[in-house]
Sequence to fold (363 residues):
Amino acid sequence: MTRLPYSYSLISVISVGLAAAFSIGIAAADEISVKDSRGKDIQIVRPVNKVAIFPLPIPEAMIAIDGGTSRLAAINPRAQAALMNGVIGQLFPEIANIRTDLVAPNFVPNVEEILKASPDIVVQWQAKGDQRVAPMENSGIKVATVSTDSRETRRGYVAMLGQILGKEDRAQSFLDWDDKTVADISKVLKEAGRPKPRIVFIDSMNDNEFVVFGREEAYFTTSGLSNVATEAGFTEGSVKVGAESLLQWNPDIVFVNYYNDTIKPADIFKHPVLAGLDAVKNGRVYKTPAIDPATAAGGELAYLWFAEIGYPDLFHADMRSTVSDGFKRLYGKDLTATQIDRLMQMDWNGQSAGYAKTFGVTQ
Fold:
């Protein structure tokens, strides 16, 4: 038998070893295509280790799908403040250490810092893409956009996050939960055949000037509510109107956005111009729960809350237990009674019609 020279044999062994290692690396890498809210196919290689999320409600969905914060590399400073001021921040205190310098509060990206941080992918709003998306993509940063304009787009980003994280089954379980909740609410409303309560959703106020949600948000329609601003012809996410417009619209119910911690139901009840609203006369002014209805992972809890407020004689879920069970399902965490009170805005809604009886500890 001819013996190969030692050097040739060593080279062969090394080559075979490198080839094997290379093939193992290729097998471990999982390149997939995900479709974002623009319909654009984004190529990613899993496992993904660092995700930067700039829209406000999306980090909650990622934490739920991924089972924690370890891969959440950066978030919007407004999202961090909202989360740390609420129950999510108590459940995941490490959110305080997540970077917030990659994006401005108005969602404009800091391209230089993003390039230094090197996230595997950035999740950004689709809207105002020229300002928010193009600067990153022009710099070679991988961006997947999201939208919360409809229930379909919200479901789309949950499915997309599941793909990015390699947690498709878990993401689908939340979508199935969403389907069941919507179907259950729809069945009750269809059987009742009631006119829809007319609502206004206030995001902020300054004396007699208000910013309200203009479009018919999916969580309004899902819960059988009708937005008076949409009735008036508005289609934008938020619009500025005067107190006289609110008087003219005369909604049955007023909602105050939980993201704004400077305005509470008492401010509406004592407002000198709004005293004439039916909603004020009947005590139907409510601070929304600290559960974002725009995230399809957990928005189901908000759907039920809105339905309970809109139709208190039709829906009789034990919302405290529902929220407790829901957070266990979403985040694997048990809530205290105090945390449930905080989520349900018990302090701020204490004067609101029927609230303490429906959502308080003694039901």
Notes: Residues 168-192 form the longest helix (25 residues). The CA atoms of residues 56 and 79 lie 5 Å apart. The chain has a mean pLDDT of 90.
